[in-house]
Specification:
alpha+beta, rod-shaped
């Protein structure tokens, strides 16, 4: 990597010629093919990467096994620096080469030595890291949001669906019109059309029995549907809690990492002032 190429990286654009030349000697260039993994989540970090050309996708695996892309980086972007801030820190995400890429690699040893001699770079990295974590937090907030109707529908049985349909029909104008039609037809049959052979003469005792059975069955079916609505409300509250908890944990992790980086920056700045 040349000094001109290095200065296209926002993190290092403020370096003077001497510092930029020193960093160029510390960098090692590698070529990667599309589809290759540079590292995976959980692996021990030992280097940060700067993209000279191509694209790299940073992604994680969700709890349900789906791959979620946090960001896609291009020329001039850097990544992998978080695992270098603390010794033995594990990678927090996968790095997948999206397009054929050429990368400059900075090892942990070289990274720390360069940061000690150039504390201003630590402040730039603090800003870049804060912006990146803010975008990640926003992405996590949306990915944690799930449709409560979809979640609830996935657990419905055939009997539950039938109960919902019956309860929906029983609370509609269609049911009222159906009952009025049934009453009129029943009375018509037992007073005019079947005058000689009525099966339920006035005062229509059998009709009252049928209506009582319908009401007796309809009431528990409606209650079943209402209980499921209560279950949906509890599910919605649970999803809200999970979302808030994930945001709280993500924000706490952001604060911890920013405090670590700020502490390292202040220490390096203090060492640099003493050396002067």
């Amino acid at each position: 990597m040349t000094i001109d190429t290095l200065r296209q990286v926002p993190l290092f654009e403020s370096l003077d010629d001497e510092a930029a030349g020193e960093l160029c000697h510390l960098l090692e260039s590698i070529d990667c093919k599309a589809g290759a993994f540079l590292f995976r989540a959980g692996e021990k970090g030992d280097a940060m990467y700067i993209i000279e050309r191509g694209k790299v996708r940073i992604c994680v695996r969700t709890t349900d096994g789906r791959e979620m892309t946090l960001t896609e980086l291009g020329r001039g972007d850097f990544f992998g620096e978080m695992a270098l801030l603390l010794d033995g820190q594990r990678r927090s995400a996968d790095a997948l080469v999206a397009d054929d890429a050429r990368l400059a690699v900075l090892s942990r040893e070289h990274f720390l030595s360069f940061m000690r001699s150039n504390p201003d770079v630590a402040l730039e990295m603090l800003t870049a890291l804060a912006n990146r974590l803010r975008r990640t937090d926003e992405l996590l907030r949306h990915s944690a949001t799930r449709n409560v109707n979809v979640e609830e529908a996935a657990h419905l049985t055939l009997a539950d669906r039938a109960a919902d349909k019956i309860a929906e029909f029983g609370g509609s104008w269609k049911f009222i019109i159906f009952e009025i039609g049934l009453f009129l037809l029943w009375m018509l049959l037992n007073t005019l059309l079947l005058a000689d052979k009525v099966f339920d003469p006035y005062p229509y005792v059998f009709l009252n029995l049928v209506l009582g059975i319908i009401c007796g069955l309809q009431a528990p079916i409606i209650m079943m549907s209402q209980n499921r609505q209560s279950h949906k409300d509890r599910l919605r509250a649970d999803l809200d809690y999970q979302l808030n908890l994930k945001n709280e944990l993500a924000l706490q992790e952001i604060l911890d990492r920013l405090k670590t980086l700020e502490r390292d920056y202040l220490r390096l700045a203090s060492e640099n002032d003493r050396n002067k």
